[in-house]
């Protein structure tokens, strides 16, 4: 098999996006693994892989990838929100609220603000 090139990594990334949209998250992960092994600092690929892990209910892996993205991009509102959703799905809603609030503070989109529950008593 020929050595992957930067062009094949771009093709794999775009194909992984399409696979995720087509509800094939495991196929997306397979393509992204090689992209990330060649470009470990590529946060876009890691964010896409995190979304694919979430979609395939691999919540620990999704959490790890979202946290990895946030280490490099602490102002990434979507990554905070997605980490919060991952934690809720894993039964850790109390821990998730912090990430929802950070997401809403960074980007006051209605879905981020609703998840942050700013107006609730005790919230």
TrEMBL record:
Highest taxon of the lineage: Bacteria
SUPFAM superfamilies the record matches: TPR-like
Keyword Repeat: yes
Repeat listed as a keyword: yes
Pfam families per the UniProt record, alphabetical: TPR_19, TPR_2
Keyword annotations from UniProtKB, A to Z: Repeat, TPR repeat
TPR repeats: 77-110
Name of the protein described by the UniProt record: Tetratricopeptide repeat protein
Species, as recorded: Streptomyces caatingaensis
Lineage: Bacteria, Bacillati, Actinomycetota, Actinomycetes, Kitasatosporales
